[in-house]
Each structure stands twice: as C-alpha cells, then as structure tokens.
Design a protein that fits this description.
Its EC number is 1.5.1.5, 3.5.4.9. This protein is an alpha/beta fold. It is built from ten helices and eleven strands. β2, α2 and β3 form a beta-alpha-beta unit. It binds ligand LMY7XDAE.
Length: 299
C-alpha cells in the first residue's frame, strides 16, 4: 500500500478562501472587519518568520492585522499593559503572544492575561477547561487543523481508535480532547508508555506530536492507518554536508508504505496552523458580535 498524501498546503488554502468569503460578507452585511493582534517579544528567528507569515495571511483574507514587536528585554509589566490595552480595544477580536517567550517572562501568567474570548490560541486556562468539558471554547490552532484534515479524510471519526503520541498542553492534550469529542477512543502515549509500538500499531489514527525526529517508523503503523505528523524538526541533512533538512516525528519513507493516509513535513499540519488562526479570529469576531459562527471552520 502507498498512502494518500494529505496536502496541508492545499487544505490550508481552502480554509483561507472560506475565511476570506466570510470576511467579505461580514463587512457588507454587518460593517465589521475582524482584527488580529500578534505580539512578538524578542528576535527568535523562527518566531519572526511565523509572525511575518501571520501578518501576511491576515491581510490577504481581508482582516486587520496589528503587529506588536517588542524588544527581548521587555518587562512583564510592559507586556501585560499592552495585553490589557488589546483586551479592551474593540477593533481587536483575536490576540496571541508568539511562543516561546523569553525566559524571564512567565508564559502562563501572560497567556492567562488575555481575555478568553480573544484568546485565539486557545491556551487560556478557561478555554482549556471549556474544551475539556465539551463546552464552546477557543481551540488551539494546530489540533484544530489536524481535526479538520481528519474529518475531511474519514467523514465521521466516531468509534475509531486514536493514539496521540505526545502530551503537551499546546498539541497533545487538546488534540486528545477534540478526538474524544468526535467519539474516538483515545489513548495519549508518551515517553513512559509501555509497548508504545504495539499500541500505535493498533490505532486507526496516529497523531505524532512528540518532538522527536522520525521516531515513529513504518513498523509502528497498522496497515491503512491515518498518520498526522505534527513534528517540525530541523536535522542535519543526511546527504548534503553543512545543510539541514526539516523532518517530522514520523519516518515518512517507511510510514508512507504502510499508512492509508499521511501528512508530509513540510507541507502538512504546519500550514494549517496559520489558516486555523484566521478561522478562529473570524469565529471570535462573530461570537463577540452575537453572530452565527462560520460553518466548518470551528471544532
Ligand atoms: N502563540 C503560538 N506560538 C506558537 C504556535 C502557536 O500555534 N501559537 N505554534 C508554533 C509556531 N507556528 C505558529 O505560530 C507555526 C509553526 C509552523 C508552521 C509551518 O507552516 N511550518 C511549515 C514549515 C516551515 C519551515 O520551513 O520552517 C510546514 O510544516 O510546512 C506555521 C506556524 C510555535 N509557536
């Protein structure tokens, strides 16, 4: 068997197109323009690229983008003051602080200072609680993107066995909650899980979000399973000296021979993260104005 490749770039383009259509309608019918504020503290090179891409994509779908770039030595008090200002700005419907933050800033404190309704990352403790109790919440963008691709591929996820490898607050745990909500039987596996290979082999769906390059090889995967690879790991290029290569948490070449469907890295889950951020900003704007939510763009 050779797996179907789930093209995240194409899927994300579709999500952005749907968001753009809704934005036009919101403007015409309600005189509203959704606004997204992104806060970047410091000069982490990868974060700078992600923030630039977020700005470009936000503008492309017709939303307002408010970018705040702060120096690496910004004090917690100054950052909290900015968030406070964004919390009460009626033109801002979504706020996020690009992670990781510099070490002197308390990530939890900063995230929890964003009002939950504008927390488009879905990391605020209230949104975590709402998601885990099956209530309406803002949902983290990467798991939301994975869910959209899984629903598209399978139709219904009900009754499927899903193994989420990785227990991070940003991906593993919310992914498990979302799959459970769609009536999957969910297991979260991690570094201490016994017989992890056999567990993965029994899964209809594997979501790999462990942060270890190419850990999940073809022999961990059951024939025909769907494999969603969340990993983004830069490793030394095996053939080109001095060059690097981006790989996932799944060993693609062996996995593709066994899986039924698989997301590549790059070009799989990654592009969905920003597309879902736009979708969540639209959702936040609709909710805060008492309008019905865009169909197919939320969990
Ligand atoms: N506040 C947040 N911080 C971070 C998040 C997040 O969701 N919210 N996620 C990541 C970074 N991230 C978005 O912020 C992100 C990561 C990767 C991609 C992406 O498109 N990746 C490409 C490859 C890119 C490359 O060549 O390096 C792919 O997988 O195809 C988009 C967004 C951490 N911080």
């Amino acid at each position: 068997m050779t797996a179907k490749i789930i093209d995240g770039k194409e899927f994300a383009a579709g999500v952005r197109a749907k968001v753009a259509e809704h934005v036009v309608r919101l403007k015409e019918e309600n005189g509203l323009v959704p606004g997204l504020a992104v806060v970047l503290v410091g000069e982490d090179p990868a974060s700078q690229v992600y923030v630039k891409n977020k700005h470009r994509s936000t503008v492309e779908v017709g939303m307002n983008s408010f970018e705040h770039r702060l120096p690496a030595d910004t004090s917690e008090a100054d950052l909290l003051a900015l968030i406070d200002q964004l919390n009460t700005d009626p033109t801002v419907h979504g706020i996020l602080c690009q992670l990781p933050l510099p070490a002197h800033l308390d990530e939890e404190l900063v995230i929890n200072s964003i009002v939950p309704e504008k927390d488009v990352d879905g990391f605020h403790i209230s949104n975590v609680g709402l998601l885990n109790t099956g209530q309406k919440s803002m949902v983290p963008c990467t798991p939301l993107g994975c869910l959209m691709m899984l629903r598209d591929h399978h139709g219904s996820l009900s009754g499927l066995n899903a193994v989420v490898v990785g227990r991070s607050n940003i991906v593993g745990k919310p992914m498990a909650s979302l799959l459970l909500r769609d009536s999957c039987t969910v297991t979260i596996a991690h570094s201490r899980t016994k017989n992890i290979e056999a567990l993965c082999r029994s899964a209809d769906i594997i979501v790999a979000a462990v942060g270890r390059p190419e850990m999940i090889t073809g022999d961990w995967i059951g024939e025909g399973a769907t494999v969603i690879d969340v990993g983004i790991n830069r490793i030394d290029h095996p053939e080109k000296e001095g060059k690097t290569k981006l790989v996932g948490d799944v060993h693609f070449d062996s996995a593709v021979k066994v899986a039924g469907a698989i997301t590549p890295v790059p070009g799989g889950v990654g592009p969905m993260t920003i597309a879902c951020l736009l979708a969540s900003t639209l959702t936040a704007c609709c909710r805060s104005n008492g309008l019905s939510e865009p169909e197919g763009l939320t969990a």
